[in-house]
Specification:
This protein has 12 helices and no strands. It is an all-alpha fold. It folds into 2 domains: 160 residues, no CATH class; 54 residues, no CATH class. Helix 7 runs parallel beside helix 10. The chain is globular. The protein starts with a helix and ends in a 5-residue tail after the last helix. The model has no long low-confidence stretch (mean pLDDT 79).
């Protein structure tokens, strides 16, 4: 596959992510302005952290007065799934030079991981980088736009934009669910397990997501191995 075809393929895959990320990031920018952090701090939030749900959580913790150490630890727990996603993708990028691993790892998000996981065939660094760059540019530019417009938008619009990130996750998941009953069962099982763990309240905040990922991913890998004779990766 040539660089130009990889570029076109990445643009097609990145378009839904860009469309979904921009309003979600704008919502973050609006909320950030509303709680009184500076434009530069808001920009660094998205440019350096680049983790949608964790940024909303961290912003809420900052507002409540939690110490920096507590904010960092909480977001680390919430984002622990990135270790698992990176480990999964590593099995498919061993042919790429190791010097590219760090920037690739920085650009991994839930949506990027989902697209890469469902992409058949060999993953090229051109495809990965353009996909990640599209997601990153949408998130950072959306944050800036949201902060600038934050003082002009009504509250009802601000609240509605807050659900954009979840809508994006559903938009990526639904096509796979339509093709595979197994994906539907795993998705529903993950939701039920997470709900039960939250209700039981015996795990620290953030760990319910990690446990769900470990359990459901293991079950999915076991089922796939039984069906195909090899671990999905």
């Amino acid at each position: 596959m040539t660089i130009s075809s990889d570029f076109r393929k990445s643009l097609q895959a990145a378009l839904p992510i860009f469309i979904g990320y921009f309003p979600a990031a704008a919502a973050f920018g609006i909320l950030a302005k509303g709680v009184g952090i500076s434009f530069f701090e808001c920009f660094l939030f998205s440019a350096i952290v680049f983790a949608g749900a964790s940024q909303f959580i961290a912003l809420n913790l900052v507002v409540t007065g939690m110490s920096p150490g507590g904010v960092i630890l909480t977001t680390l727990l919430v984002n622990f799934r990135h270790f698992l996603m990176s480990a999964s993708l590593f099995t498919r990028i061993k042919h790429i030079e190791k010097k590219f691993y760090f920037p690739m790892a920085f650009g991994i998000t839930d949506e990027v991981f989902s697209v890469l996981s469902f992409t058949k065939g060999r993953l090229s660094k051109t495809f990965i980088f353009f996909l990640e760059l599209s997601a990153y540019s949408a998130w950072v530019s959306g944050t800036i736009a949201g902060f600038i417009l934050g003082g002009f938008l009504p509250d009802v619009l601000t609240k509605s934009m807050g659900v954009a990130l979840y809508a994006l996750l559903l938009a990526i998941l639904l096509p796979e669910i339509k093709k595979s009953t197994k994906s539907l069962i795993l998705a529903v099982s993950a939701g039920l397990l997470n709900t039960v763990l939250i209700k039981l309240e015996f795990l620290p905040k953030g760990w319910t997501i990690i446990v769900c990922i470990l359990v459901i991913a293991s079950v999915g890998a076991f089922i796939n191995e039984r069906e195909t004779g090899e671990v999905y990766g």
